[in-house]
Amino acid sequence: MFNNIGLPGLLIILMIALVVFGPSKLPQLGRAVGDTLREFRSSTKGVVEEITSDPAAEPEKLVEKN
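== Sec-independent protein translocase protein TatA ==
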């Protein structure tokens, strides 16, 4: 989808974001996006590890939790 944006397109997007949000809000927005991506990656990593775990080990996990 974003394979052919290029540098000029990216600069236009950044200029529009600067005009819309202002220079004081851009660092906060960047931080929020970074935190969201980090949380999404950790969540998906946990789900993938859970799915790919050994099915024979699942009863042991249930016994440990109870």
